[in-house]
Amino acid sequence: MYNDKIYLTPQEILEHDFKIDARGYRPQEVDKYLDMVIRDYTEYNNIIKDLENQIKNLTDDNLALKGEIRRLKAELDSAESESVNQRSVTNIDLLRRISQLEKVVYGKNE
């Protein structure tokens, strides 16, 4: 993904040899090579900033989703407790109706 923007590898930098003139290394060759190193460093810095922004955005999204999960679990628990309460009320109503029907069918003495 980012490799197409990087020109030099650490191994290439390590193994690079400059040609030597009578007075030392050729300044143009050194300058050209240093420009390539600077370009790569600049690209690395841009990549790092981009990845840090992505990490921040993903962390924010993660926190938002965790909050939504907590909220939905609380709603689910609330709905389940209401459902249990409604069922118990419904069961009590059914027992009362059965009791009234038994009184009618079997008589009021039992």
Portion of residues in helices? over 70%
Secondary-structure element pattern, one letter each: HEEH
Which strand order do you get reading across the main beta sheet? Answer: 1-2
Mean pLDDT: 85
Estimate the global geometry from the Cα principal axes. rod-shaped
Model regions low in confidence, pLDDT < 50 over at least 5 residues: none
Domains, number: 1
Distance between the termini: 85 Å
Structural class: mainly alpha
- Contiguous helical run count: 2
Main pleated-sheet profile: 2 strands, antiparallel
Rg value: 38 Å
Count all strands and give the number.
Answer: 2
Strand proportion, as a percent range, falls in: under 5%
Descriptive keywords:
single chain; 110 residues; mainly alpha; two-stranded antiparallel sheet; 78% helix
Question: Can you walk me through this structure?
Answer:
The radius of gyration is 38 Å and the shape is rod-shaped. It has one domain. A hairpin with a 2-residue loop joins strand 1 and strand 2. The longest helix is centred in the middle third of the chain and has 80 residues. It is mainly alpha-helical and about 110 residues long. Strands 1-2 form a two-stranded antiparallel ribbon. It starts with 9 loop residues before the first helix and ends with a helix. Helices cover about 80% and strands about 5% of the residues.
